[in-house]
Amino acid sequence: MKQKLLNNIGLVLSLISALLYAFNVIIEKKYIDYMSSEKILFLMYLGAGLGLYLLHIFTKKSKKVNSERLTKKEIPKVALIVLCELFASFLIIEAVKNINASLVSLLSIFEIIMTSICAYFLFRNPIEKNEIIAIVLVMIASFILNFKEGIFSSIGLNSLLVIGACLCWGIENNITASISSKQPSFFTSIKCGSVAILYLTIIILKGDLHISNYILMILGFFSYGLSILTYALSTKYLGASKATLVFSFSPIFGVILAILIYNETITYSFLISLILMIMAIIIINKKEKS
Questions:
Q1: What one-character DSSP code corresponds to residue 207?
Q2: 9-32 pLDDT, tens per residue?
Q3: By the 8 A CB rule, do 194 and 81 touch?
Q4: CA distances (Å), origin 79, targets 20, 84, 86, 127
Q5: Dihedral angle over CA of 181, 184, 185, 189, nearest 10
Q6: With bands split at pLDDT 50, 70 and 90, how would you rate the model's confidence at 182?
Q7: Residue pair 258/101 in contact by the 8 Å Cβ criterion
Q8: Who's near 63: CB < 8 A, 6+ residues apart?
Q9: CA-to-CA distance for 198 and 37, rounded, in angstroms?
Q10: Using CA atoms, how far apart are residues 220 and 234, in angstroms rounded to an integer?
Q11: In angstroms, rounded to a whole number, what is the distance separating the alpha carbons of residues 55 and 45?
C-alpha cells in the first residue's frame, strides 16, 4: 500500500515536471512578437537560476545537506553544458518566430534521439535495435512533416533549427550524466545563472538595455527550474526509467497546449507524425528492459 502511494506521488511529480517544461515553447511564442529573443531567454533563465539557488539555500539550512562542489576537472564540462544550453535555447526561439508552437514542440522529440546518437559517438555506448527503430520512426515523421513544402522550405529550414537545438541538448545530456552527482537545484541554478549572464552580455553588446515583463522570471522559474526539480524528486519515488518515460512525453504535452492555447491547425500529416513520434518515445524507453 505504501509503495503504491509512493509510485503515485512519483507519477504525479513526473507529470507535473513534463507539463511545466512543455510550457517553454508556449511562453516564448507569446512574447516573441514584441521582445527580443535575448531578453526573453535572459529573464527566463535568470528566474530559474535565482529561484533554484534560493531553494538550494533553504534546503541546505533546513535539512543540513552538505553542498557538493564542482571539481576542477568538471569545470570545462560545465562550461560546455552552458554553451550547449545557450545555443539550443537560441535555436529553438528562432524557430518559434516562424513556425507553429505545436510543430516546434513535436520536433523537440529529436532530443531523445540525439541523446542516444551522441552517447554512441561521445562515449561509444552501443545503439540498441529499439533505438534504431525509434530513430527511423522519428526520421520518417520528420520527413512527413516537411514533405508538403519541401525540406528546404520555410518550415524545413526552421525544422532544422529545432533539430540543431536537440543536437545541442543531446550533447548536454551526455556530458551532464558524466559529471559526478550534484544536488539538482544547486547544479541547475549554476547552469541557468550562467546562461542568463551570457544572454545579458549579448543584450549589453547590442546596446538595448530596456528590459520589461519581469513576469518572465517567474515563468522561467516554473518552466525551467521547478520542472527539473520535480523530475529529480520523481525519480526517487518512481525510479529513473519510469520517470524518464513520463518526462519524454513533454513535447506531446507541448503540442496539446499549443493547440488549446493558440488554436493551431492540425493536418493529417501532423497527426501521422504525432503517432509515429509517440511510438518512438515508447520504443526507445524500453531499452532498459531489453
A1: T
A2: 888 888 999 999 999 999 999 999
A3: no
A4: 26, 9, 11, 27
A5: 80
A6: low
A7: yes
A8: none
A9: 13
A10: 20
A11: 15
